[in-house]
Automatic annotation (TrEMBL):
TPR repeat residue numbers: 87-120, 127-160
Domain of life: Bacteria
Enzyme Commission number, as recorded: 2.7.7.65
Gene3D superfamilies in the cross-refs: 3.30.70.270, Tetratricopeptide repeat domain
Molecular function, one GO term: diguanylate cyclase activity
Name under which the protein is recorded: Diguanylate cyclase domain-containing protein
InterPro entries: Diguanylate_Cyclase (IPR050469), GGDEF_dom (IPR000160), Nucleotide_cyclase (IPR029787), Rev_trsase/Diguanyl_cyclase (IPR043128), TPR-like_helical_dom_sf (IPR011990), TPR_rpt (IPR019734)
């Protein structure tokens, strides 16, 4: 029995250790421990294993299962009169309510957890509960109580050398000061947290803090420092594969590029959208769609602004629907946990009603998701020119990189820009300018033919073309054929008393796929070649071969 008990202790410790780094594995280990504990009637170990399962579910944001396991753990600990175990379980249940923005219930569970800890010297759990209390008070706008709770958590952690807790709490206090625009104070707290996390080598937490420090530098217009911290955070997160926090860094990088480089701005946001769609991060999508709606409104591209506003509205509905469904499920789980025996019969009708409501909410969520996908297809298509949108091109390139990275193929990216297009607009007006764009796009599409790759509108009068499998000489011929085809349209405009033809300049990069890592590098190199083509007289092709 001692060997079994020792085995259980080791399994549960390992599960809790990797709960945030590898939650699915942590869950499997804890589940194995639970089965062994049940078989040997070790109720304390069973309760501990259930808690570890709940902790892993929290990391996977499977909140209903987290609540279920945490409540089972609490009931077992209550039966055993284990106050420390009850406090940990109550704290985890409070976290679930916090995630659902049910702050009153979360507060009740956190305070109840502290009640069970009052006669114990369990500083680790106490500091976590006080930190969670601070987060609740922060969210409801009670800053005085929030600071008091964070300071209490910090004092406990510092007195007992709980370094990881100290780093997390310092970050939370720094964020509070950031929201109050106390940037220097915020920076001091974040820097202290950062220095500690460097020592602790917590990659994800480091990236979070670097992102926040970068934001402070950005607000202060210290752009080089901001970029340094953003880039460092991005590299760390790419290494861990954490897409959730990567989205926020990409949005911040886009914000930096908004006024300086529209291409980078949109590219970063497109990457963020793809990550958010992959992990169903609806709140992140809502933020990105709001940014894109405002951006296209400012540019006067109202059809795109409307598309993104629709997407924002659908995502917000989906968020609300999902939250309602999850809340109903939590109520159902709680009823089944609290009421037993004869009392179950008394609530059977209520359970049936909840099941019906949950089913309705799930159907609505499926409907909203379908509407979002349908609208997404529209955004991938450029309404004016009838070619792929910039977003569709980005999606295509990401697919090439993800699915064909093992193939060392010839690839090329061309940036194509209509020369002096502003002069054409000034000569004929924007309505005729749109007609010119349509004709040039149709011409390029015809010249593109059945090439393996994609042709799309990058923005304004600029187009982008990606090809797979063309050798250098073939690329030169292909690029020249597109340039000549546009020249042969015989579209003209008048400037300074003379008639000028509509032409395009082309900049291209040709290489093996293995020579480049991020897709963004191709855009940068091709754009540099386009700039060279413009400087060398326009109506020409410039190609860089790696």
């Amino acid at each position: 029995m001692d060997l079994v008990s020792e085995q259980l202790t080791d399994l549960i410790k390992e599960s809790r250790r990797i709960a945030f780094q590898n939650p699915s594995q942590a869950y499997e280990i804890a589940y194995e421990a639970k089965l062994i504990a049940e078989k040997n009637d070790f109720e304390t170990s069973q309760a501990s294993a259930l808690f570890a399962m709940g902790l892993a579910c929290r990391s996977m944001t499977e909140l209903e299962r987290c609540y279920d396991h945490a409540y089972d753990s609490y009931q077992l600990y209550e039966k055993l009169e284990n106050n420390r175990g009850m406090a940990e379980a109550l704290n985890l249940i409070g976290v679930v309510y916090f995630y659902y923005a049910q702050y009153e219930q979360a507060l009740e569970y956190f305070l109840n957890a502290l009640f069970h800890l009052k006669d114990l010297e369990d500083f680790l759990v106490s500091s976590r509960v006080y930190n969670n209390l601070g987060e609740v008070y922060r969210e409801v706008g009670n800053e005085e109580e929030a600071f008091a709770a964070f300071e209490q958590a910090l004092q406990i952690s510092q007195d007992n050398h709980l370094q990881m807790n100290v780093a997390v709490i310092l970050e939370n206090i720094g964020e509070m000061h950031f929201k109050n625009s106390n940037l220097d104070i915020s920076y001091d707290y974040l820097q202290k947290s950062y220095d500690m996390l460097i020592e602790l080598d917590d990659i994800t937490s480091l990236a979070e803090v670097e992102n926040k420090i970068g934001k402070i530098h950005f607000i202060k217009k210290e752009f080089e420092q901001a970029r340094h911290f953003y880039d460092s955070a991005l590299k760390r997160l790419e290494h861990t594969g954490n897409k959730f926090y990567t989205i926020e860094v990409l949005v911040n990088l886009a914000e930096m590029e908004r006024l300086e480089n529209e291409s980078y701005f949109l590219d970063y946001l497109n990457q963020a959208v793809q990550h958010a769609e992959q992990i169903h991060a609806r709140k992140k999508l809502s933020v990105i769609y709001t940014i894109l709606t405002e951006f296209y409104e400012e540019k006067g591209q109202y059809h795109l602004a409307l598309d993104y506003f629709k997407r924002y509205h659908i995502v917000e509905q989906a968020i609300e629907t999902q939250v309602v469904s999850q809340k109903l499920k939590i109520i159902q789980i709680e009823l089944n946990k609290v009421f037993t025996g004869k009392e179950v019969e008394q609530i059977s009708k209520m359970n049936e009603q909840l099941e019906n409501e949950i089913a309705i909410q799930k159907k609505l969520l499926v409907k909203l998701e379908k509407a979002n996908v349908d609208l997404s297809d529209e955004v991938y298509y450029d309404e004016l020119t009838k070619v792929a949108s910039r977003r569709e091109v980005t999606k295509y390139l990401q697919k090439v990189w993800n699915e064909e990275s093992h193939i060392d193929q010839d690839i090329a990216l061309m940036m194509l820009d209509i020369d002096y297009f502003k002069r054409y607009n000034d000569c004929y007006g924007h309505v005729q300018g749109d007609e010119c764009l349509k004709q040039v796009a149709a011409c390029m599409k015809s010249a593109f033919g059945n090439q393996k790759g994609i042709l799309g509108r990058y923005g304004g009068e600029e187009f982008v073309c990606f090809t797979n499998g063309l050798e250098v000489n073939e690329l030169k011929q292909f690029a020249e054929s597109i340039r000549q085809a546009v020249r042969d349209l015989n579209l003209t405009y008048h400037f300074n008393g003379k008639t000028h033809p509509v032409t395009i300049s082309v900049g291209a990069i040709h290489c093996k796929q293995s020579q480049l890592t991020p897709v963004l590098d191709m855009y940068v190199m091709a754009d540099n070649e386009l700039y060279r083509a413009k400087n060398n007289g326009r109506n020409r092709v410039e190609i860089r071969v790696l």
